[in-house]
Every structure is written in C-alpha cells, then in structure tokens.
C-alpha cells in the first residue's frame, strides 16, 4: 500500500503540471457528465469531520457508481490536508479548493503513459480481486 501512496502523490503532481486535474465534487460531476471517456482516475477524500456529512456521502456513492459503470478506478484518501499540501490552492483564485473529489483526465497529448497511473490501476485491480472496490490509500509525507 505504501507504493500506492507514493504513486498517487506523483500522479497528482504530474496531472497538475499537465492541467489534467479537476478538483471539486461539482466540477468533477460536471466533467463526468460531459466527457466521461476522458476521465482516467478518481480520488475521493474525507476527513473525520466529513464522516457525518450525509450530502457528501451521497455524492460519493453516486460518483463511485458512475466510475464503476464507466471502468474508472476510484480510491479513497482519509487525509485532506495532505492532499491540499500536494495539489495546493486554485491557480486562478489562489483560494483553497474543494478536494473531496479529484479527477485525473487524459491529456490531449497522444500516448501519454504515466507509470504512476499504471501502478494505481494495477493496485485497484488487485484490491478488486479481494472485493475491496474502493480501496483507501495512505498518502506518504
């Protein structure tokens, strides 16, 4: 699992550099509605205070169902501050952004192969083999 955390960290940094990262529950839902074929990976993030947020849990259930239906791998992260440290604030406004859902999309460059994305796809496939459909990843420091 440690390797998956490092791979996720690197994938988020790489996707951000290539402008292939969409952050926010509503922004992600809009993107999936318009261009689901372009979504390569999904990260759902919560903290302890989010556990009682019923609306957020409903959004997560719908996003997970959509991802499963469209063969998009999904993982959970239970550390929003660590995620924020990796992806940082919004580039446009400099404001903190909603990191409860992050989508990694395929860049327009043909043949962009990301070894970290491949590692995470393999990790998710392995977890599904033991009926862990939305595995939790621990982010490294």
Short description:
Belongs to the GADD45 family. By secondary structure, this protein is α/β, with parallel strands linked by helices. The protein has helices spanning 2-17, 25-35, 54-69, 80-87, 115-128; strands at 21-23, 39-45, 73-77, 101-105, 136-137.
Describe this structure in words.
- With 141 residues, the protein is of the alpha/beta class.
- The chain has a single domain (4-137), classed as 60s Ribosomal Protein L30, Chain: A, CATH 3.30.1330.
- Helix content is 46%, strand content 16%.
- The protein has a five-stranded mixed sheet with strand order 1-4-2-3-5, sandwiched between helices.
- The model has no long low-confidence stretch (mean pLDDT 88).
Task: Sum up the structure in keywords.
141 residues; 60s Ribosomal Protein L30, Chain: A; alpha/beta; single chain; five-stranded mixed sheet; 5 strands; 46% helix; 5 helices
